[in-house]
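Narrative of activities, Objective 1.

The group set out to show that a structural description can be obtained from nothing but a protein's sequence at a throughput compatible with the screening campaign. Below is one input-output pair from the validation batch, recorded exactly as produced.
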Amino acid sequence: MAWTTMLEKLDRRWIFAVMGLLVAVPLVFPAGLPLTVSAPARGFSDAIDAVPDGSTILMSCDYDPSARPEMVPMTRTAFRQLMRKNCRVVVTVLWNAGPALVDATLNDIAREFPQKKYGVDWVNLGYKAGDDAVMVLMGKGIANAFPRDYHGNETKSLPIMHNVRDYSSFPLLVNISAGFPGTKEWVQQVQSRFHLPMVSGCTAVSAPEYYPYLQSGQLKGLLGGMAGAAEYEKIRGENGTATRGMDAQSLAHVFVAFCIVLGNVVQWAKRREGTS
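Output recorded for this entry:
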């Protein structure tokens, strides 16, 4: 058959070109592929919605640039949701390569709310070495664990921190985590000990490990990977980088599957042709 010979001799660069277009185009022009919102993602958004407007929220962003595609969209959407509720947000980072990325992400969203002031409506306390030991220390006083913020300001001098003592000052912990230390340690060291309600956004590979915490009620909501971030964006009515990333990823997966099926069809047709 002429068509089987043509496909066998097809220059593989055409396949690479099509794959490149399927990945690149949706990142610029979203395809708007259907996306079903899961109960854990809904729980994440609902838990933040349930917090009284004007509350002070603890948000720990525990990741570094290697996890940016999954973690940053979650951070952006969660911080934006909290800002819209007029919540004051206290941010910490327990990964040493994360503070600069987290600070840039927060500042990017803060520009959407020019009436919000740093040190009054939100603060980035930056990085503290010690992993889960820092979590325990924060239970004795947030300012004790973070005497200065990311920019070098004395923590106690910031208006947002005047009524913040320890975990009892927060109605909710929002954790965006790419691994250790992260969600597991926050549940074990803080949620279990101080009974602080908590939601988590994590990498796709970590999510299965945390579903038992969701089922036990220790987590009120869970976002798993880019898919979870995209679901969260859909709930909030946003068309962010996670949604576009899922469009690109889905189209790429469909094309790979199509190529596999087509390759098998060609081989089947050639064998049939040879036996006829």
